[in-house]
Write a structure and sequence with these properties.
Rossmann fold; eight-stranded mixed β-sheet; 17% strand; 8 strands; 299 residues; 47% helix
Length: 299
């Protein structure tokens, strides 16, 4: 697909989403307004904190609560959500960006009927998307997610533009940390950029691999003291996932721990976290526009 064709595709998609925003399509047949898709970015300042594992298990736990879940692997250059789930996609987001496939055509079925949009791996160019490519991805996402209750965005780690943009589109930002000091330092750096350059005012903190719930809450208290003093951002404690050797075993077998060891400590944590997601109020609203992505696109 040539450059002109790609530009025309983005223009046409933007036109379609504009028409969608202008029409009253958020009503059910009985005239009542549909509940919009909950969009949650799960992110981290540091790699290796178990972020992707949390996305996979939380997605399955939400599915078991009756939610229709879509998981987006937004680590576009080093995606591994499909690997974690033992899937082997033929197509991924690189084929969407190139114009070869639509997002609907690359969706994979995962455990518990969750659906996955897989990322590519080993394509350096996708780690820094152009503005046009970002518009294309967000536009196609907006057209796709109406049929889902929850979209979980598994971002890359760090403070790259891709990471920050995906966080900025979400209604909720869930920052994952581990008890390691470097994890906390890098998470603070991520929050600082989101607050200062993207005007983010709210996020939630999830402590992974905590020795106990008490340790998770203590890490949050330490972190929140610093955030309140130096950042103009509200940090809420979302919870913790307990350290569990069953998680490592499930990763090696390319299955989620919730499916392989449903009674393990970590699995019970994911069940409780899913209930929190189901009941929590959103920090951002779309103010009547089709979905949150459209608001981000027009800014």
């Amino acid at each position: 697909m040539g450059l002109k064709d790609k530009e025309n595709k983005v223009i046409n998609l933007s036109k379609r989403i504009g028409e969608k925003a202008g029409m009253i399509k958020n009503k059910n047949s009985d005239g009542k307004y549909k509940k919009e898709t909950r969009v949650i970015a799960i992110t981290s300042g540091k790699g290796g904190v178990g972020k992707t594992n949390i996305v996979a298990n939380l997605g399955l736990a939400l599915s078991r609560l009756g939610k229709k879940v879509l998981m987006l692997d937004a680590d576009l250059g080093l995606g591994n959500l499909d690997v974690l789930l033992g899937l082997a996609p033929k197509y991924n987001l690189s084929h969407v960006i190139s114009g070869e496939k639509s997002m609907e055509e690359i969706i994979l079925k995962g455990p518990g009927n969750v659906e996955i949009l897989p990322a590519s791996s080993g394509i350096q160019e996708l780690t820094q998307l152009s503005k046009q490519q970002k518009i294309q991805i967000l536009t196609e996402l907006d057209l796709l997610i109406d049929s889902f209750d929850v979209l979980l965005i598994d971002t890359a780690a760090g403070i790259s533009t891709n990471v920050l943009d995906f966080n900025a589109t979400a209604q909720e930002i869930l920052i994952v940390v581990s008890p390691e000091p470097t994890s906390l330092t890098d998470a603070y750096a991520l929050m600082k950029v989101l607050s200062m350059k993207y005007s983010e005012k709210h996020c939630r903190l999830l402590v992974n691999q905590a020795a106990s719930d008490q340790e998770g809450r203590e890490i949050y208290r330490q972190y929140n003291r610093v955030a309140e003093r130096f950042l103009n951002i509200s940090v809420k404690y979302f919870g913790c996932v307990l350290f569990d050797e069953k998680v490592t075993k499930s990763v090696r077998r390319q299955q989620v721990v919730l499916e392989l060891y449903p009674d393990s400590p970590a699995s019970k944590c994911f069940g409780m976290l899913a209930k929190k997601v189901k009941n929590m109020k959103t920090s951002k609203t779309t103010e009547g526009i089709s979905n949150l992505f459209w608001k981000h696109l027009v800014q």
